[in-house]
Write a structure and sequence with these properties.
Elements: H1 2-61, H2 68-83, H3 87-109, H4 112-115, H5 118-153, H6 157-160
Length: 188
């Protein structure tokens, strides 16, 4: 009779541990997928911004053709953004992009007729909207990473999470936080 009670206790413990592992594994998978989805949202918004830039450059070029260095910097930053493979590379590219955008808007400020151009104003509004969406996507991504990393690092999940193939993800951080504190703006 004593061995039967011991067997029942062992079976109940194994079932409880099994249910815990099953639930934890499923929640880790869910969080992992959510982080992947959030990263996809960021790349979509970065691509959208990169697609707006050639139009913006062409509009500004029409008024300030001699500002070649600015246009090359924006083009280089655009290419860097499109080729970024992860949060670390995207952070560096984002820093370069913010610097390049500030330069192009500084050029635009020197040309009042450009500032009055309807095409430029529309592109500027779309760019500001896209910057807002990038910031929102980045917050969503970093929130998902925070949840996933916390779930992976807390006890007892940390004992088996790595063995199941789950690793902590990188946050999307920008080296120059002041550069992205607010969307690019043009003062008229």
């Amino acid at each position: 009779m004593g061995w039967l009670i011991a067997l029942i206790i062992v079976v109940v413990l194994v079932v409880i541990i099994g249910i815990y592992l099953w639930a934890t594994y499923n929640s880790l998978v869910t969080l992992n997928v959510r982080v992947d989805e959030a990263w996809s949202d960021i790349t979509v918004q970065l691509k959208r911004r990169a697609d707006l830039l050639p139009n913006l450059i062409e509009t500004v070029k029409g008024y300030a053709a001699h500002e070649k260095g600015v246009f090359e910097a924006v083009t280089k930053a655009r290419a860097e953004t499109l080729s970024a493979q992860g949060p670390a590379e995207a952070s560096v590219a984002e820093n370069h992009m913010q610097t390049a955008l500030k330069s192009i808007f500084a050029v635009a400020e020197a040309y009042p007729q450009l500032q009055a151009s309807q095409n430029f104003l529309q592109l500027q509004a779309e760019l500001v909207d896209t910057e807002d969406k990038i910031q929102a996507s980045r917050r969503f991504y970093n929130g998902g990473v925070r949840e996933l990393n916390t779930k992976i690092k807390v006890f007892p999940n940390n004992i088996f999470a790595k063995r199941l193939g789950f690793t902590a993800r990188d946050f999307f951080e920008v080296a120059d936080l002041a550069a992205i504190a607010e969307p690019p703006r043009v003062q008229f």
